[in-house]
Structures are given as structure tokens and as C-alpha cells.
Amino acid sequence: MTPTVGIDFDNTLVCYDALFHRCATELGLCDATVAPTRQTVRGAVLARHGNEAWTRLQGIVYGERILEAPPAPGAQAFLLRCKADGVRVCVVSHRTRQPAIGDPHDLHEAGRAWLAHHAFFSRFGLDPDLVFYETSQERKVARIATTGCTCFVDDLRACLLRPDFPARVLRVLYLPGDSERDEPVPPPLVPCRDWDHVTRVLFGDASARPSPPPASSASPPPASSASPPSSARLSPLLLARHLLARSADPSAASEGLHCEILAEGINSQVYRVRDRRAPDVVLKVYSPPAPGRPDRLATEYGALEFLWRQGVRCVPRPLAAGPDLHAAIYAFIPGRPLSEASPEAVRAAWEFFVALQDLRDPALTANVGAAAEACFTCDEHLAVLDRVRPAAHRRRPGRRDPQHRRDLRLDRWPGHLAFGR
Questions:
Q1: What is the b/e burial string over 377-397, where b = at least 16 CB atoms within 10 angstroms of the residue's CB?
Q2: Distance CA 176, CA 48 (A)
Q3: Separation between Cα atoms, residue 59 and residue 54, nearest integer Å
Q4: Where are the beta strands (DSSP E) in 299-356?
Q5: Phi, psi dihedrals of residue 57, rounded to the nearest 5°
Q6: β-pairing, 151-154 with 131-134?
Q7: Where does residue 55 rank: exposed (0-12), middle (13-18), buried (19+ CB within 10 A)?
Q8: 62 and 106 in contact (C-beta within 8 Å)?
Q9: What is the enclosing helix (H) or strand (E) of 155?
Q10: What is the rounded CA–CA span in Å between residue 303 and residue 283?
Q11: What is the C-alpha to C-alpha distance for residues 150 and 168, in angstroms, rounded to an integer?
Q12: What does the pLDDT read at residue 181?
């Protein structure tokens, strides 16, 4: 299941401001002095000529003159970013088949012609089979649910706030700087003023966003230019929603999600995902495995699944994994760093160790992978210490020489403590 971004068509992917102004002045519906935005033109036409004139103007702009409208600024760059990062894009829009008033143009075909004219199919990675024009808002919302959208971008808050809108979908309200749209935005909507803002919300950092190819370029980019999906390129919020949708209870991905980072290292980043309507979970993003090295995600997730199947409950419950995204979600267990090894902490660690020892049956553990630094002999353990201890020593001056660790020979330990013998 691939992360999917759904996008509305009219006034979200297409910018009609200049075209509405041009057509209205040509038809004598408003003066050239009216500000060239759709909202101001609409207000002027309604005030002077009424709703019928405005409806007829919409039919002209959305139908016979649509090819004159440019894409919304930044929209093509956004689709390139999705294409490069393996994020699927679909267009879902509410459009009547023909204008209510005026010449009977096919508005669905006009929309597809606009997408083809502006190279959304040939250069920007949009699949023609993922373009849906629905004849009602109800059908539009139902289509958003069936396409598996992780998030949806729309300029109509009424659509995003419908009670039948799928709760697991992140709702991005596209608000290109109109002064008339400055009223407060209610939750769970995420307001974005432009497509650069949408990119930052969904991908976290827009600095690596590619620019659209020159208009003179007639050939599509080679297929090899698209890199494989990487969770590092998706924002934690979008990644958490996508993985929650994969979990056994997709309804858990409600609209009230909030991510905060708990830990960040070379091999992974860990986030706490708070939800207003469900228990918190942990999102862990793993670095892709290097050639010849163990897959940390597969090993850790598989081990926790094994422990839960065997009834061990002192470890996080694995909820969903995305090997293609190098990320997984787990149940959140409240806790705090230990300042000292209290008797209770030692007892808990010992009980966990004993539980592991009870599961040493090869028939049970045949499919459980070894951890990245798993040791099965004393020499292997000492080799790990030789590799990691000097670096830790350099980071923490004042500690004893790393060679001191080698003096603690494991073969001098009591036999029952050395590797569970």
C-alpha cells in the first residue's frame, strides 16, 4: 500500500483567477478595475448581474476556455516531489458533466484535456486512471475513501468537514492568499496558503524539492530518475497516518494526530504520536539497511511480534510495519530514563531475561532474526566492545580506558551469567 495524496481539481490544482477576470471583462460583466481574483470577480458579477450570469460564466471558464487557465503556482513542483519519492497522486473532484446554463460542453473531458495540455500525464507523473470527476459531493467523498488517500488537499472546507469524510485522511485546506478567507480554520483541517506550504506539511522539508522541467522539454524524464520511496522524505505526521491506516484498526488514524520527537540517532528516529481519540503510539523511522548488513526494521519488528505471540507483555506491541518506507508503529509504553539501577528495575530486567531463556526452543525461534550486534560467543562480544567502546570513550572524557572493559573477561564470570549457560 503506497502513500497516496488526493488533490481536488478546480481552484486547487487549477488557478482560475486571471481567466475569470479576463472572461468577465470581455463579456461586460465587470470592470477591468476589479481585482483579478476569482472571489472578487464573483462578488462583482453577483452584485451587478445576479446568479444566472455567474453560473454561465463558470460554464465558460470551466469548459470551453479552460485551457487558458494556468496550474496553481507550485502544483507541478509538488507532483514532481511526489513522483521522485514514490508517493501516489490521484485527482478527485466534484464536477457536473455539463454546465447548468450555457453551451453543453463536457466538463469532465475538458478537465482531462487541461491535465494533458499542461503535461500532468507526460511529465509530472499523474496516472490518467487516477483522475476521477464525480457528479456530487457524496460521490466525491466516497471516491476519496476507496482510493486509499493518506491525505487530501481541497479548497472547499465544506467538503473536508463533511461527516462522511474518512477520519483517517489528513485534511489539508488549500487557501491561496485571499483576504476573504481569513476566518479561523477549525480542526481537524490543516490550512496551507500555497503549494510550497503543502510540501512542507507532507514532506517536512521542502528544500530538496525539484523544479519543474522547462516548458520546451517535450520528452518525459527517464524512468530511472525516480528514486525508491523513503520514509525520511515524508513528514512523520503523514507517515504515521499511512501506517495507522495499515494497522489492524484503520479507524485508529483519526484526525487529531500530533507528532513529537523522542529520540534521534544514526540508525533511527523515534516519535511519539499523540491522538485525541485513541491511545498514543510510537513511530520509529529506520535508516535503510546497508548492503550486507541486517535489516533493523525486519529484525526488531519480527522479534516483537514473536514475543507478543508468546505472551510476553513487557515489550511494545507491534502495530504495523512499512518495509517499503523503512518505518513501523508500536504501542506506546510510558516510562522514564533510569537514573540508577533500583532493585525494582533489576528485578524487571531479570524477569525479562528469564522469559527469553524460556523461549530458546529452536522450533519456536527458527524465523527470529539475529540483532545487528547479537553475540553468540565471548570473542564476538569482545569484538563488538572493541568496535564501539573507543568511540563512546571519546565522547565521554574522564571515563576509564576502554581496555579496562577487556579486563572484565566474560570467561571469568559465574557460569550461569555468561550467555545463559
A1: eeeebbeebeeebeeebeeee
A2: 26
A3: 9
A4: 318-322, 327-331
A5: -65, -40
A6: unpaired
A7: middle
A8: no
A9: none
A10: 17
A11: 7
A12: 55
Using 50 as the pLDDT threshold, list the residues of the chain that sit under it. 179-180, 206-232, 250-253, 392, 394-396, 398-421
Could you give the CA distance from residue 312 to residue 353 in angstroms, rounded to a whole number?
Answer: 11
User: What interhelical angle do 17-26 and 51-62 show, nearest 10?
Assistant: 120
- Residue whose grid cell is 490521484: 90
Q: 539475529: which residue's cell?
A: 370
Q: Which pLDDT score, from 0 to 100, does residue 332 have?
A: 93
**Quick one: pLDDT at residue 413?**
37
- Assign 353 to helix, strand or coil: helix
Q: In 10 A of CB 375, how many CB atoms? A: 16
For 92, other C-beta atoms within 10 Å of its C-beta total 25
Amino acid at 219: S
Measured distance between the N- and C-terminal CA atoms of the chain, rounded to whole angstroms? 45
Write down the pLDDT at residue 362: 80
Contacts 24+ apart (CB under 8 A), 122-125: 122/220, 123/212, 123/213, 123/217, 123/220, 123/221, 124/76, 124/79, 124/80, 124/83, 124/212, 125/79, 125/80, 125/82, 125/83, 125/89, 125/226
Residue whose cell numbers read 464573483: 42
Q: What is the pLDDT of residue 255?
A: 52
Contacts 24+ apart (CB under 8 A), 365-370: 365/306, 367/302, 367/306, 368/302, 368/303, 368/306, 369/294, 369/295, 369/298, 369/299, 369/302, 369/303, 370/294, 370/299
Residue 221, pLDDT score = 38
DSSP character for 5? E
Query: From CA 238, how far away is CA 152, in angstroms rounded?
Result: 11
Task: Give the position of cell 499511512.
Answer: 242
User: Quick one: pLDDT at residue 248?
Assistant: 58
Most distant CA pair in the chain: distance in Å?
97
